[in-house]
């Protein structure tokens, strides 16, 4: 998979079959769209391409109160590459100039001039351009490419969407989120130095840096963690740590079971399997340690039962 970062390219690109969107989380609706794009591209002898944006347009327009992000750009690109879902990804910077671009300019300058689009597959609710004035009718009128709309994909009777995944994660329903995603919800990031309080309490944690201000889920969770060496079960806290912190920053801290060693600077992938509880504030560290012990026991029990089911 080839990834092109930055502004528009105006020459040298082969014709492509294109789809457009944020593809946050790359849920089953997105995966089905890319499968159809692949089939249409193969029939036309074209490579497949995805045009996506960074930051998410809603983050741009709601800078002071951004929505939660399901996946980092790196996680999204890694998943697309691992599953071989698309041949090319164009990551355009969503900035004031891009936001002001008219719908017709977007068609002429981006879809035709920059990306050499010959086939375009869009979602059934796709709108674009300044003030969202562009729609399917405008795209269909362009003679340079064929435009088709992808109907909604239903999972257990519900329309698969990033919004619905966020709602299920916020509600702590990780099983429902996993059904919509086609896999357990996961995030990755590098381990950074923290206060090292966990090791003094008997539960050393890996503090994982994530770039977005608002996570899609909060609480204490059973997790599986891919390290550079192996996969470990564990328990994770994702939130503001109200017992030991007074700030508003969200932190992802993971205690790996049966692990010994250092992970600073390493990239870990965390899969969230089950929510154990919401965050809570404890009056003493002893009370916090007692709760962590209960959380760890619950997580170990769940992972053991999961291994038996998979055996």
Automatic annotation (TrEMBL):
EC number: 2.7.1.26, 2.7.7.2
GO biological process, one term: riboflavin biosynthetic process
Location of the Riboflavin kinase domain: 180-304
CDD domains: FAD_synthetase_N (cd02064)
Database matches in SMART domains: Flavokinase
Pfam family, one: Flavokinase
Keywords: ATP-binding, FAD, Flavoprotein, FMN, Kinase, Multifunctional enzyme, Nucleotide-binding, Nucleotidyltransferase, Transferase
Family as reported in the entry's similarity comment: Belongs to the ribF family.
Protein's job: Catalyzes the phosphorylation of riboflavin to FMN followed by the adenylation of FMN to FAD.
Name recorded for this polypeptide: Riboflavin biosynthesis protein
Provenance organism: Crenobacter luteus
